[in-house]
Amino acid sequence: MEQQNVIGIDIGGTTVKLAFVTYDGEIIHKWEIPTVVEGGPEGMVEDIATSIRNEQRKLDLSHEDFKGIGAGAPGYISLEEGIVYEAVNIGGWKDVPLSKLLGEATGYNVRIENDANLAALGEYWKGAGDKAEDLLAYTLGTGVGGGIIANGELLHGANGTVAELGHMTVIANGGRHCNCGRTGCLETEASATGIARSALDGIEQGRSTSLKEQYDQSGEISARDVFEAAADGDELAKEIIDHVTNVLGLAISNMAIAINPSKIVIGGGVSKAGDQLLEPLRSKFDRFTLQRTGSAVEFVIASLGNDAGVIGAAYLARQ
Fold first, then answer.
1. Residue 53 φ then ψ, to 5°
2. Do the domains at 5-122+307-318 and 131-302 have one common CATH topology?
3. Overall average pLDDT of the 276-281 stretch
4. Within 13 Å of residue 148, how many CA atoms lie on the same side as its CB?
């Protein structure tokens, strides 16, 4: 096998996803291991390196069959220095020289990037982004992340906070507290967590809703439950989706006016609602944005699912 294969790694708070990927972006083999934070960054890097060697051995692949590694992690990252400045979801990592540690443990050249940026890059290269030169990607999951591609290049900004799209303020006065320390962030309203929180708020306020019965039975509410209740005509659920698409449409329209994208890719668990999310979102977006900006934009649901991060990481490794 020629030396053009690469390794993509997507480090998350619960699992580390890994894949052997061809130079053309086809996954040869993918697997995951648990994220173990107790041994610190060095312990986790050793787990990753050991796992890579084991899988190479199983598949009868050698070290030389691979060109390098791309790796994503949540938090603030310096691409040039290869440092994770801060990743609260991974054992409170601070100033971790991840490129150096991974390079020493594996013997490969390593490039690192923010995980949401890599998901955007994956969708751009092999997914719903379809190589659109100007693209906005939103991941609506436990939080809200994203990535911005302009003129075919991922934007990075001055110190690693570009495309922290979940932390745009959408509730100017008040709003819920966010993990970033501020209030009113998009993440607190439009994430799966925020949608469930809105449903619980409604139940606590004594609103008449089918979601109450479900909550009483199971002790929890998910974003999916809210979308299903809305489809069945539940008024509270419909109001929540109206609010979510309103704040999301406002945030996306402002970003679109700034970068004038041709594609807006929506991913993450909330995107599984499909047209039930996209249709009202598109309507709100069109209301808030410039008509000419809106005329250039196509909204699409992300297509790579959980593979977006490792494919984006593979694209990074190619470079």
1. -60, -40
2. yes
3. 98
4. 19
> In this model, does residue 3 exceed pLDDT 60?
no
One DSSP character per residue, 67-120 reads: EEEEEEESSEEETTTTEEEEETTTTTEEEE-HHHHHHHHHSS-EEEEEHHHHHH
Domain boundaries, the chain: 5-122+307-318, 131-302
- How confident is the model at residue 91, as a pLDDT? 82
Through-space distance between the first and last CA atoms of the chain, rounded to whole angstroms? 20
User: Under DSSP, is residue 232 helix (H, G, I), strand (E, B) or coil?
Assistant: coil
The per-residue pLDDT for range 282-313, each reduced to its tens digit, is: 999 999 999 999 999 999 999 999 999 999 99
Do 101 and 43 contact (CB within 8 A), yes or no?
no
As a whole number of angstroms, the distance between CA 286 and CA 290 comes to 8
Where does 131-302 sit in CATH, by number?
A: 3.30.420.40
Which of 37, 17, 9 shows the shortest CA–CA distance to 111? 9
What integer best gives the mean pLDDT of the chain? 95
* Distance (Å, whole) CA 154 – CA 120: 9
Residue 239 corresponds to which amino acid?
E
Query: Average pLDDT in the 236-248 region?
Result: 98
- The pTM of the full predicted model, rounded to 2 decimals, is 0.93
Q: Which of 48-57, 81-90, 149-158 has the lowest mean pLDDT?
A: 81-90
Residue-level pLDDT at 1: 43
Distance CA 40, CA 254 (A): 39
72, 112 Cβ separation under 8 angstroms? yes
Residue with tokens 């606590």: 204
Q: Torsion-angle region of residue 249: left (phi > 0), alpha (psi -120 to 50) or beta?
A: alpha
**pLDDT value, residue 253:** 98
| 5-122+307-318 homologous superfamily | ATPase, nucleotide binding domain (3.30.420.40)
